Amino acid sequence: MVMFSDKEEFKTAFKNQLEEKLGKTIDTASDFDTYRALGSLIREKINKDWLKTNQEYKTNKTKQVYYFSMEFLMGRLLGNNLLNLNVLSLVEEGLADLGLSLSELEKKESDAGLGNGGLGRLAACFLDSLASLELAGHGYGLRYRYGMFDQHIIDGKQVEFPDYWLTKEFIWEVRRPEDAIEVRFGGQVSSRRDKDGKLHFKYENYEPIQAVPYDVPVVGYHNDTVNTLRLWSAEPSVEDTMKKAEKEGEFGHFLTYKRSLESISDFLYPDDSTEDGKRLRLKQEYFLVSSGVQSIVRSFERLGLPWSSFPEKVALHINDTHPALVIPELMRILMDEKGIGWEEAWEITQASVSYTNHTTLSEALESWPVGLVRSLLPRIFMIINEINERFCQALWKTYPGDFSRIADLAIIADGQVKMAHLSIVGSHSINGVAKLHTDILKEREMKRFYNTFPERFNNKTNGITHRRWLMHANRPLSSLITEAIGDEWVQEPKQLNKLMERKDDLSFLDRLHEIKQENKVDFSNWIKDTQGISVDPDSIFDVHIKRLHGYKRQLLNALHIMHLYNELKSDPTLDIVPRTFFFGAKAAPSYHFAKKVIQLINRIASVVNNDPDVKDYIKVVFIPNYSVSIAERIIPSSNVSEQISMATKEASGTGNMKFMMNGALTLGTMDGANVEIHDLVGNDNIYIFGLRSEEVWDYYRNGSYSSKAVYENDERVRHTLDQLIHYSPFSRGETDFQEIYDALLTYNDEYFVLKDFASYLLAQKKVSQDYQRKRQWNLKSLVNISQSGIFSSDRTIQEYARDIWDLQRVKTLK
Ligand SMILES: *Cc1c(COP(=O)(O)O)cnc(C)c1O
């Protein structure tokens, strides 16, 4: 659809919106008002295409995929929507005529931070790709009242503040009370046989909760497709609350009751690396699943097709195991509400559901105590139990007498419901998120399941949307690319490899360098404005941004900086290439060790940045509140991308892909998708160091790693670690970092930080040397950009659509 025929039409529409909707004029409107007017105008304009897309799906009975995820880390939507709607320049110029700056208005939007990190951001990138590829795919999630916490650094430590993102209206959402669903918790189930011997289940004394959907349009790139992100919000059902209020005759009770129901969609659990098993979290999971599956079944029924064709029209995808209850929930609806028998319901369920595994960290694998599941979800528990019984019986037939195998694979064991097992048994496809990760699943973590169901396992290497992470985040680079190779790469990102034609074009390489330099200057100004720290745009921008976790080894980076500091202090004439180390990371509020690492990084920053002997050579900046918007700011101005996880622990990583696409060079271990980046760019264009996965497993097997031995044999390690606990500029004579010291030495360094210290130093030296040879560096950067197209989430989504979901591209009518 043509949204505005020209700039003038836009200006008129915008002014009307401001006056009619907000009762303001350009002179009296605040920046937030103008953002709201612009956003709501665009949202209204999207409506027509949104309606049309939905009608087409209905009329053509198009197969649709529903991507269930407890997290959607969307970030801001305005800029990306304008880009996808093909009105970015028009709006920008129109606003400029009115004396307004689009980029300033964009900043008024709060990040929709409904996710922790990689998993939630992946879901967001997938939505963009689905719509842009004209695939009928929607996101189903929760409308958390508080998203990812707001991180402040106070006295060098992380302090969490609630993220009040909804207090400023979220202009993109549309509340749809007419599509509300009732979700039921607790109560009792009884069964009776009818005269034909058929079992019927009666569910009583449950607690009903209204799930009200809020729909957010997901706009495809230049194609008129508008899919939906449906976010469910928990509300008391009006009728029930009235009854309750009358019964108890007291308004105070009513309010407490209302609050307790609403608490289901109150806040996002801020930990993505450990499973904390809280009752409210299980409620959230079932709330999402039940409202989602009920509403999907409702739409399917409107098509008037037989139940057997459900899997031909519906694909249910679960993003990790958090929504695994879609399996028993769909079974429940098909059997209890639609009267379908077990076998048929099971066939339909399995053929519809597919599952992505995101981790091999055992502490992150979900399991729920049987007692909790039984009391909170009695009918669902019965169904899980039956799935388990039948599965174990089938195993017994194939492996008679093999108790250990059956105990190993069972869905319910040791009083726990194992969500990964449920997900594998109940789906037709299980995928890992990078080649190495999928191999680890098949050969190690899920070996017995792989042997049982080899045809279900497959790899889908993650991706990122190049529209947000290159076209929108780095417009100058994006324009340069188009100047050089035309704009086909936008629709087909693999064509970025045409950039290799320019590898000998020195003036092109210089342009590439200038753009990076300009981005670095912009970013430096922003750092100066927001943090008051001056950084040198000519220094190497070395960036480590991701969740803070032991396995991601921010500590290794920090120890290296301490070592550099020591070297500079002992030899002030040392010839070192100036560097600025940037960090951005949130720690889960209960993850004590991770918070200590944040404190250490901030301590190092205060020492290094204030020491006249070193501050012109190295600087350390901890950017608070790492989020999608901050990632978009920093990645285009990065030279070095720190991807230094302990091999085997990072399933894929997607940060690594964003950096590569923006011309930063990866400094990393052979882990996750780094392996695939390495294979694409070759040894000369990446800095690989440290233990390989096989070596890590060897150490695990023979238990021969001793961090103390490293400490004793490497004077640099010893000196640095001692500075954590003995009097030093870093410890300031206090015991703040004793815990880090103990983790590394007393507890034998779980993540092999010290083992990889020496090789990390060497790799860092090589980075410094290479950076001085500008042309070669720029060429390496070019190679990285040119090979990054494969990491567009368009490629990933095409693979899911073809191999897992069996989705065809729909051509939307113009
Ligand atoms: C991409 C992204 C991540 C994931 O980063 P990794 O380096 O892959 O862990 C986390 N948080 C935000 C805000 C992101 O944009």
UniProtKB/TrEMBL annotation:
Compartmental location: Cytoplasm
Post-translational modification N6-(pyridoxal phosphate)lysine, affected residues: 658
Gene Ontology CC entries for this record: cytoplasm
EC numbers: 2.4.1.1
Enzymatic reactions: [(1->4)-alpha-D-glucosyl](n) + phosphate = [(1->4)-alpha-D-glucosyl](n-1) + alpha-D-glucose 1-phosphate
Main location: cytoplasm
Coiled-coil annotated residue ranges, if any: none
Keywords: Allosteric enzyme, Carbohydrate metabolism, Cytoplasm, Glycosyltransferase, Pyridoxal phosphate, Transferase
CDD domains linked to this entry: GT35_Glycogen_Phosphorylase
Single GO MF annotation: pyridoxal phosphate binding
EC class (word): transferase
PROSITE patterns membership: PHOSPHORYLASE
Source organism, top-level taxon: Bacteria
Leader peptide range in chain numbering: none
One Pfam family per UniProt: Phosphorylase
Cofactor: pyridoxal 5'-phosphate
GO biological process: glycogen catabolic process
Sequence similarity: Belongs to the glycogen phosphorylase family.
Reported function: Phosphorylase is an important allosteric enzyme in carbohydrate metabolism. Enzymes from different sources differ in their regulatory mechanisms and in their natural substrates. However, all known phosphorylases share catalytic and structural properties. Allosteric enzyme that catalyzes the rate-limiting step in glycogen catabolism, the phosphorolytic cleavage of glycogen to produce glucose-1-phosphate, and plays a central role in maintaining cellular and organismal glucose homeostasis.
Protein name: Alpha-1,4 glucan phosphorylase
Lineage: Bacteria, Bacillati, Bacillota, Bacilli, Bacillales
